[in-house]
Amino acid sequence: MPGSEHSQPGCQLSDELRHYYLDTMGIQLWQALHQPVEDITDNRQEDKDRIWQQLEHAVSSCTKCNLHQSRTQTVFGVGSRNARLLIIGEAPGKDEDLQGEPFVGRAGQLLNAMLAAIDLQREQIYIANVLKCRPPNNRDPRPEEAQACAHWLEQQIALIQPELMLVLGRIAAHHLLNTDRSLASLRGRTHQYAGIPLIVSYHPAYLLRQPVEKRKSWQDLKYVKSLLNGG
Ligand code: SF4
After folding, report:
1. What is the distance in A from the centroid of ligand 1 to the CA of 68?
2. Which residue of 135, 137, 150, 198 could cross-link 165, Cys pair, CB 3.0 to 4.6 Å?
3. What does the CA dihedral 13, 9, 207, 220 come to, rounded to 10 degrees?
4. Cα distance between residue 195 and residue 157, in whole Å
């Protein structure tokens, strides 16, 4: 039975994020900006839709790190904005960069199959990456790139307010949990990110290279299902 661990400090809105919301929402949002992140969900649906629209537009033209120079397009995220489960990967790969959608290609197909195994359709969840632009030649994201991009994902998390976050792969887990521990040691327990339960598992691209690990991945997926079922 997985244990419980609280390893991530609360997610705070940055000044930049506050200014962003001010720009997009006008003076009416001023009070909301001084509320905890979770209170964003109290905004009216049309306000949230407007924030999503503005957020996606801002990401599409982002030049905060050098990765904007080599991208085909940004990869914002996809899925239900009311999802109970938010899946977070590392960064776009070649297929994602070309199609503008996270987790496509062979890794995406495997993810879809993994989700189907626990009775979830891709459309029911939200999928995003830590980085919105592809690192050249699929190299690991650099810390300064992840730092530059972090506030986009923070806003997505704040807007979705998922019940559970499933983080796939070492890079994304290290970034979100602010740790350098091995992925193996991070699996099988519940972490916390801004008060949201978070669990860690293998990235589908890794599973394609190491199919023997699919068995452990299945254990993680069953754990996801049990948490979503209130277990
Ligand atoms: Fe902006 Fe993130 Fe792309 Fe860097 S990776 S340019 S911070 S969207």
Report:
1. 6
2. 198
3. -120
4. 11
Q: What is the DSSP string of 56-94?
A: HHHHHT--SSGGGGT-SS----EE-TT-SEEEEES---H
pLDDT of residue 4: 42
Instruction: Please tell me the distance between residue 104's alpha carbon and the centre of ligand 1 in angstroms.
Output: 20
Mean pLDDT of the chain: 85
Q: Indicate the top mutation candidate among 16, 62, 140 to test ligand 1's pocket, ranked by most ligand atoms within 8 A of CB.
A: 62
What values do phi and psi take at 39, rounded to 5? -75, -10
Q: Which of 92, 37, 50 is nearest to 70 (CA)?
A: 92
Task: Name the β-bridge partners of 146.
Answer: none
Ligand 1 proximity of 132 Cβ (cutoff 6 Å): yes
Give the distance (Å) from ligand 1 centre to CA of residue 87.
19
Instruction: Output the pTM of the full model.
Output: 0.82
Is ligand 1 within 6 A of the CB of residue 68?
yes
Taking only the tens place, the pLDDT of each residue in 170-183 is 999 999 999 999 99
- Burial label for 139, CB within 10 Å (0-12, 13-18, 19+), is exposed
pLDDT of residue 41: 52
Q: Rounded CA gap, 121 and 83, in Å?
A: 11
User: Which atom of ligand 1 is closest in space to residue 65's alpha carbon?
Assistant: 4
**Predicted confidence (pLDDT) at residue 37 exceeds the cutoff of 90:** no
